[in-house]
Amino acid sequence: MTTETIEGTHLETEQEHGMSTRGYIVVALILAAITALEVSTYYVDFGPLFLPSLIVMMVVKFVMVVSFFMHLRFDNKIFSWLFYSGLLLAVGVYVAALSTFHFFLR
Amino acid sequence: MAETTTHDAHVSSTGLSNVKLGMWLFLGSECLLFGGLISTYMLYRGRVSDGPTPEQIYDIPFTSVSSFVLLMSSLTMVLAVSAAQKKDDRGINLWLTTTALLGATFVGGQVYEFTAFYNEGLGFSTSLFGSSFYTLTGFHGVHVTVGIIMLLALVAINKRSSVPGSKSETVEMIGLYWHFVDIVWIIIFTLVYLIPV
Lengths: 106, 197
Prior knowledge:
CATH architecture of chain B: Up-down Bundle
Strand content of chain A: under 5%
Number of helices of chain A: 3
Largest sheet of chain A: none
Structural class of chain A: mainly alpha
Strand content of chain B: under 5%
Oligomer: heterodimer
Number of helices of chain B: 6
Largest interface: A-B, 57 and 62 residues
């Protein structure tokens, strides 16, 4: 029985992908700052920017966690395809479902 | 017979870990589950019958602190994954335990919130708003609780393991699950709590 090491392949458990500890802390601080900004919309009148700004901040936080904390930015693209195809399918299905109830016209 | 040194990674013909492929596929399917629950809430949040409205019962400062706690648990989780990549078992156990404690704080906050809402007259069957709210946030809370159990079980298993870094892939998989629970809450916090009916 011989033992060999796979070389030239992307063994995810062995890969030193991702960021430094400092990098993770910076990302967490940015996420915390965005959360504080989100909460401020409850107290401060953002006018017509209220809804778009909340949606944009939500999407930015989502993408930052997925990209940096879940390492999708550094990982093989197959993982991105698997996750984002499920996400896009869900968004498409439920936007269509909500549209049938005239949700967006209310 | 050739034995391939992959530690605990089971590699497919693509060169990628089967376990990791399965986990990402599972998380993709979970988007459909939570998408359905969030959509149902969005449809029914205005149907309050005789019960309290969302604006009357939501405690935004309290929920904001809970959200912050869960967000910070994602940081401690990624530090656990980072420690696993360095085969630092002490670091793994420290950060996994911290993550579990932050998660337990979040769940404790949710139990408090549910109790407060119930005392203010919002039961599960009071209105369609109540049913959809408790179902959505309850499902999320169960996911966090399952995550806490997995984290603590992993700490126990890791402490008994004699090979440093032998559970690195498991730490990474539980990390993916934990971050997913966090991103679901990012969406719930905005759509459910911050955007008024």
